[in-house]
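User: two proteins, same treatment. go.

Assistant:
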Amino acid sequence: MTKSLSLLAACTLAHGAVPGRCAWCGAELPKRRRTWCSDRCGDAFWANHWWSVARRTVRRRDRYRCKRCGHKPPGRTHPRYRTLRKTDRLEVNHIVPARGDHRRLSCAHHLENLETLCLTCHKAYTKEQRA
């Protein structure tokens, strides 16, 4: 059994690996499809379980603004972008900590568990969690 199929069996968002059915939405599979009924269902699975895809999806969903303070860092066209991107950037935060699951397929990356924060808010949030 592959990692993605074992994750589908345990994931609360998916309908599981039922033969003849889409593993994400539960719809009947069209001919020549094995796991997902459409590319949209496959993309939804990866956006909720693979860190790099989830991070990109969350930033886009939050419109590249901090969810706490509303700060939007300067874009690539800003004249001082190269120097500002180190200190004035957005980070994606796990509301419920991932605890080292960043490099693996994991349900810790579900989109409702992620939020976009500026560097200042992310540091403050992490400090609150540790206390």
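Protein 2:
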Amino acid sequence: MTPRIPPPLLALLAALAMRWLAGSMPVARLVSGELRWLGAFVAVLAATMMVSAALQFRRVRTTVNPMKPDTTTALVTSGVFAYSRNPMYLGLALILAGWAFWLGALTPWLVLPLFTTAITALQVLPEERALARLFGRDFAAYRRTTDRWFGRFTASR
């Protein structure tokens, strides 16, 4: 399966759904007032991680285009990629978490697991298949040491 929905568009749709839920079905207020800025802080950190990942791709002259995973020319495993095989998608999810925090209601949080499930099925899995074809053993070794979303494993685990 080839990715068909650009991840930023999927994130935007999720953000709009979160806003709609917060306005039409807030259920419970979790955060208000000054604490809402913590959501913006999380979003800024996530955006910084995404920019770092994009710069790493540029440095090794491989594609940043998520719609064409078969055009990847290098397997990046250092920097933020040492902690997440998908720091850009993790960044999008964290931006959405920051947005949910900013909105302050409980219902926007329902969208986050839907987003991560959708981005995994529609984007991450096709990318992983492409990387396995392109980089074989190197990608297999990377998969054993670095989690899809977040975490670095050691040989003892």
